[in-house]
Design goal:
Strand 5, helix 5 and strand 6 form a beta-alpha-beta unit. The protein is an alpha/beta fold. Strands 9-8-10-7-11-12-13 form a seven-stranded parallel sheet, with helices on both faces. It is globular, with a radius of gyration of 21 Å. Helix 4 runs parallel beside helix 5 and helix 7 crosses helix 8. It has two domains: 147 residues, Rossmann fold (3-Layer(aba) Sandwich), CATH 3.40.50; 229 residues, Rossmann fold, CATH 3.40.50.300.
Length: 413
């Protein structure tokens, strides 16, 4: 019989211990450690997680420093440069070379469909035999795999399936209308367009400005980066997508029983987006997030030189919508629930020379009348300043004194 996550004999690992600052993390990316959009979970944890990534496990990209590919593009410097991180062909090899063994093993990629690649089993088994907890963001849960679960049970090693959804499921009730905290939702022109990265950069910039910023993670990667609330929304049954989003936003708001602010209530909540309303495969989760979060503002994320959706079809391409059409689609579908406005456009520009980047931002700003930046290339502070100005004009923003005073000042890069 398969060992289920609710099997009382399977060891547990509480969420606050998934990735601690003192942890050393080995991250599996076999074949995918070559681009920020191909190993999203691995790159995000390497850049943003307080735990230290001690090594990357990738048989196709072995080398002394995983970060070399980020610094190889002088036109797109990575401001989140991390210490030198070796890349090994296997976890077994890593254990034989590292001075200190990893304390966590993370599957840092999720193939389309979220299945478990058979070639990863040897590394997973090595981790379990070495007593290292294993974390994965796959749609196929490790704890439901008979062989892996039995091995983990025998070795008393926790398995963490990041995409397990909260229980019980909840339908949208409209309670989000009682939320007094301004909400900003990240939306996109496609999947893998920088929504989670931009969310983290916005939260960081807002906190540097002195705002009490909270954020809601909606995917498996974000849940590893110490969000204020979160759930794997792309795993939620469609009838409960908006309801789960609503529940997580209200959790991040930290209100009292009468929906009033408390000492822990933030000034602003950022919600990580998923997919795109125009995406033929992921539009459902995008719409659920839009209605469930009830955003006052949206920030659009776009990969600048991408023209076709990241989508496997029978050969016919699905093209990226013009930015103004994607924006209009979001505003139109949000309007019946909670009217929203566009605050900015975040473009991802790896490999784009500086002069082309400047021209791209100029074109977007002329088209849409909002700031446009690459938050990895430069700081997201320009977005925060615009958001502060616009939020102050909304009913929610007028309730938050810190957001009444127009343009932000004193923010650090």
């Amino acid at each position: 019989m398969p060992q289920h996550a609710d099997d009382p004999d399977l060891p547990r690992l509480p969420q606050d211990r998934w990735l601690r600052p003192e942890d050393r993390v080995a991250v599996l990316t076999h074949g995918e450690w070559h681009g920020a959009f191909s190993a999203k979970t691995a790159v995000a944890v390497w850049r943003y997680c307080p735990a230290r990534v001690s090594c990357i496990i990738d048989r196709d990209h072995v080398g002394p420093d995983a970060g070399a590919r980020f610094s190889a593009d002088p036109a797109h410097p990575d401001r989140k440069r991390r210490p030198m991180t070796p890349v090994f062909a296997s976890l077994e090899e890593a254990l034989g070379h590292l001075d200190e063994p990893p304390t966590r093993f993370l599957i840092g990629i999720a193939p389309e469909g979220g299945g478990l690649d058979g070639s990863w089993r040897a590394d997973i088994e090595t981790a379990i035999d070495a007593g290292i907890p294993v974390l994965a963001g796959l749609h196929r849960f490790l704890a439901d795999d008979p062989e892996i679960a039995a091995r983990a049970k025998k070795n008393a090693v926790p398995l963490v399936d990041l995409r397990r959804t909260p229980e019980p499921p909840v339908a949208a009730s409209g309670v989000g209308r009682r939320n007094p905290v301004p909400v900003v939702l990240l939306v996109g022109t496609d999947c893998r367009s920088g929504k989670m990265t931009t969310t983290v950069e916005l939260v960081d910039a807002a906190k540097r400005m002195g705002l009490r910023a909270a954020w809601v993670a909606t995917g498996q990667t974000g849940r590893l980066l110490s969000p204020d609330a979160g759930a794997p929304i792309d795993r939620t049954v469609s009838d409960f997508t908006a309801g789960e989003t609503e529940r997580q936003v209200m959790a991040a708001a930290r209100l009292d029983d009468a929906f009033g602010p408390t000492a822990d209530t933030p000034d602003i909540i950022f919600v990580e987006g998923q997919g795109a309303l125009s995406h033929p495969a992921y539009s459902g989760v995008s719409l659920g997030l839009l209605h469930g979060s009830r955003p006052d503002l949206i920030v659009l994320c776009h990969v600048w030189d991408r023209t076709e959706k990241v989508y496997k079809t029978d050969g016919e391409a699905f093209y990226i919508l013009p930015l103004d059409e994607e924006v209009e689609l979001n505003l139109m579908l949000a309007k019946p629930v909670h009217p929203t406005r566009l605050a900015g456009v975040a473009i991802a520009t790896p490999g784009i020379p500086e002069d082309e980047y400047v021209e791209a931002t100029r074109r977007v700003e002329a088209l849409l009348g909002v700031p446009c930046v690459d938050p990895v290339r430069v700081s997201a502070k320009l977005f925060v300043e615009r958001i502060v100005e616009m939020i102050g004009e909304t009913p929610r923003g007028k309730r938050v004194p810190k957001l009444r005073y127009g343009k932000a000042t004193g923010i650090q890069a």
